[in-house]
Amino acid sequence: MPPKPITMSNFKRAPQATPHHSSLLSTLKSTTMIESKPVLPAEIISRILDYLPIPDLLSFARTSKRMLEMVYEDSRWVQRLHAMGLWNEGEARKRFEEGMKRKREVMRKRHEEEAKRLGIGVQNGVGAQRKRRKDKGGARIAVPDREGPDARSRGAA
């Protein structure tokens, strides 16, 4: 039994009513695509994006999640702004640091609010969890912290 011929195409020609059609248009019309999803490599798409004007980039980003990620990649915009003479590395670094500082402050405030909500004390800027135990009825009660300021002064005496 001879081996099957290797084909590189996912196209299958539909049956033709008249076998005499030899024009390219009729051949294309009679061709159907079978289970294929064409995908360009990211490198090619990236090169194409480098040539698109900004309004077209924004439209292109709406076509799929993959394109959105590629269009909004930070390095693409840094390169574009640098080429336009609008990129200032010092200003960008300063704004990044300010943003990180704001983010840390928000996280610290959230942590404090969560600690208050859970009944965890905050001493000297460091969270200290209150010790709790259950009474005879099973209710939780707070136990005084023995390592507080009074305990330190007693230990020093």
TrEMBL record:
F-box domain ranges (all copies): 34-80
InterPro entries (alphabetical): F-box-like_dom_sf, F-box_dom
Region annotation (Disordered) ranges: 1-23, 107-157
Superkingdom of source: Eukaryota
Bias (Basic and acidic residues) ranges: 143-157
Database matches in SUPFAM superfamilies: F-box domain
PROSITE patterns, A to Z: FBOX
Annotated Pfam families: F-box-like
UniProt-recorded name of the protein: F-box domain-containing protein
Species for this entry: Glarea lozoyensis (strain ATCC 74030 / MF5533)
